[in-house]
Predict the 3D structure of the following.
Amino acid sequence: MAAAAAASVGAAAQGDQSKSDGNPMWPAGLRWNCETAAKIVCERDGSCKLAKGDAPFLLNYDNNNIEFANGNVRIKRHYQQTVEASPLQSEVKVELADNRVIWLTAVDASRTYSDAWVGALTELKGGAVLLESQGVYCTPHK
């Protein structure tokens, strides 16, 4: 059964859209503390293994970047995607200038009980390692 998808594309820079349009994370804040979980590393030989997750990072829509421990990476674009009849309600995709992608979905679709978002930080590679993907948990920055 094919589901119809609708996407709302928005620029990440401050002032482009009001906090209530464009990105469903914005009503809870423009800065998010994100923790990472175990990383899955898949190699060209077909094997995949678990590795330690990377350091926490700050998702900073206000400055249009992600603040990683080893430096900032610009947000190329982000958008909300909703899929008709999906229990996920909406997802946020954040594409980074270094080609990593963060997929996030609200823990509580109504955001009545929680403002937390969970998902994955994924990076496709072209050498001996083909893919790295790790769990991500983000909460509004206090």
